[in-house]
Amino acid sequence: MKTLKAIGRRENGEIVEFEVVNGCVHCSDNKLTELHLPNGVIQVDCSYNKLTELHLPNGVRDVRCSYNKLTELHLPDGVKVVDCSHNNITDLHLPDGIKEIYFQFNKLTELHLPDGVEKDLVFM
Q: Is 121 within 8 Å of 102 (Cβ atoms)?
């Protein structure tokens, strides 16, 4: 069985690999400036890096990307939990079915809620 890997690049140019274990990638606090996630990832924690962009694969459900330098974040349908606090995001579109969102300490000028947003959605 082939092992899935996420590929990152550190600010010094070094390429690093992170194994996907049970659909989860944990690569926080690695000084990453780039991160490429394979299909099959359902949870990612890439907090405390230097990412300016993050492309999420379809099927991801839990995204932890706080303390980066993101200016935008495109969330695919099916995401349930997102912590994108402490970034530079200005415009955020929330997908249907999201349950928790943490977005404090950004530069939000627009927040787009899905139609019929669930009343139990947790905003922080």
A: no
CB atoms within 10 A of CB 12: 7
- Distance between CA 113 and CA 45 in Å, rounded? 24
* DSSP structural state of residue 21: B
Q: What is the mean pLDDT of each run of 10 residues along the chain (124 residues)?
A: 87 96 96 96 98 96 98 94 97 90 93 69 57
Instruction: Quote the tokens at residue 56.
Output: 């999420």
Write down the H helix ranges in 1-124: none
pTM of the model: 0.90
Residue 22: CB atoms within 10 Å: 6
Instruction: Give the Cα separation of 40 and 22 in Å (integer).
Output: 9
Q: Please name which of 56, 54, 60 lies closest in space to residue 81, comparing C-alpha atoms.
A: 60
Domains along the sequence of the chain with CATH: 1-124 (3.80.10.10)
Query: Strand 5-10 to strand 32-36: parallel, antiparallel, or no bridges (unpaired)?
Result: antiparallel
